[in-house]
Amino acid sequence: SIFNVLQHHLTFEEITVLDLYAGTGALGIEAISRGTCHAYFVEKAPLAFTVLKQNIAFQSMSSSAINVSVS
Q1: What pTM did the predictor assign?
Q2: Quick check: 63 and 41 in contact, CB under 8 A?
Q3: Long-range contacts at 57-63 (CB < 8 A, ≥ 24 apart)
């Protein structure tokens, strides 16, 4: 995955992730699971936004690290 490549070049704890066109939120959720301090998710499609919120809730992620918006 992209994160396996990036782990050799970045310290995840020091970055913020912007997941535009988030869809299911896979990119941002994976970044948070690897220690990213903050992730912003942006999704326009109502159905995808609903799935995104469910996926975040399912992961039981810290709400202080996540910002979700519909644009």
Answers
A1: 0.80
A2: no
A3: 59/29, 59/32, 59/33, 61/29, 61/32, 62/32
